[in-house]
Amino acid sequence: MTQTAFLTACRDAIGAAQVLIDPHDTAPYLTDWRRRYTGAACAVLCPATPDEVAALVKLAVEHRIALVPQGGNTGLAGGATPDASGAQAVISLRRLNRVRDIDPHNNTITVEAGVMLAEVQKHADEAGRLFPLSLAAEGSCTIGGNLATNAGGTGVLRYGNARELCLGLEVVTPQGELWDGLRGLRKDNTGYDLRDLFIGAEGTLGIITAAVLKLHPQPAARVTALAALASPYAALDFLSLTQRIAGPLLTGFELMSDFCLRLVGRHFEQMRYPFAEPHAQVVLLELSDSESEEHARGLFERLMETALEDGLVQDAVVAENLSQSRAFWNLREHIPLAQAEEGLNIKHDIAVPISRICHFIEETDAAIAQAVPGARMVTFGHLGDGNLHYNVQAPEGGDAKTFLEQYQSPINQIVYDSVHRHRGSISAEHGLGQLKIDEAMHYKQDVEVQLMRAVKRALDPLNLMNPGKVLR
């Protein structure tokens, strides 16, 4: 009866057409992007304005219905998928898709939560500005989801992650009140930073409905290159050298193992291995220059001359045009797709201090090799900010499903124990969702968990905001 009354009230609030209950209509909202989780929901609610979101939350409080906020449904940790009870309602923010304002002088853009990341990039570009958050899913992920998970991507080294790119938020609280914090200020020292409570909270403390985002000047030129190296240790030294010579011009520094690129070539024949001979590691680096392409290329030539003389780099190829630059980035972005084609695998999105990355790889590779002879390591990621996608593929010719069933838990423990020893994080940019709650509760200090629970109880005492995600 409560659900029936709730759905009737929702239809009155936002229109019957925006309250989806038919299984054919709700199905796309109930399974996560990786198809790891499939839930059930009493309805999928599709509001079009922040006021409609607030009205729905008030109704949820009145009828004690839990809400699961969802953006583009591209998350990798099950954070936007309801549980199997059928008692929760998904609240989709896709119809909140207006760009409210662009302020070139303040270098800000104000957008609603359902605006796709690629659209923000496009509007910024049209205004002669750059919005530097860049992800493989940028054509389908939304700003609300990016902020809810504190998304990272390829530009964190220079520009920071989603948190650093946000100046203000508009949020519907768990009581259905609308907080207008859309202040485009770099300095606002007037008490607790409420904005940062909601960024990265995955909808467990409230629903982000709009944001003021930082813009940057468009670079005059970009230089993209691939550099071949003998080891992660050489890549780390090369990173230090690049930072010393290029300084803030360095905007991307991605590490890819030889096996990663071989895997891409195996499943995407048009993407050929970029060097004549195999190399243990390849770095994709990009410089963004505000002066000119000539200046950027001159700086890059000086960098590579020094790196070759110092024995850090074994070979290099520089993109000659935008098309070739895009091809280099496609190599990097197709690694997860190639993994999926190869079969089921065990994924990890971890971060360790940059200085510890080589030791982490060396020690953890050895431990996994001992535990699972023949396991193939697919190691790649954002070396410049310490974030690795440290993935494990089943042994060649082995049954991937059996491998997953038998080894996922012990391999996770090996990886997460190693991350913990190196004072790292078990989730660098994908969030915890429902995937990593138990591990997070295990590795976090008790005082940290209790503080998180205290915040949750204070803001959402009824536990109606995305329950079962982030913490228990």
Automatic annotation (TrEMBL):
Pfam families: FAD-oxidase_C, FAD_binding_4. Keywords: FAD, Flavoprotein. SUPFAM superfamilies: FAD-binding/transporter-associated domain-like (SSF56176), FAD-linked oxidases, C-terminal domain (SSF55103). This is FAD-binding oxidoreductase. It comes from the Bacteria. Residues 37-218 form the FAD-binding PCMH-type domain. Belongs to the FAD-binding oxidoreductase/transferase type 4 family. The lineage of its organism: Bacteria, Pseudomonadati, Pseudomonadota, Betaproteobacteria, Burkholderiales. The keyword Flavoprotein applies.
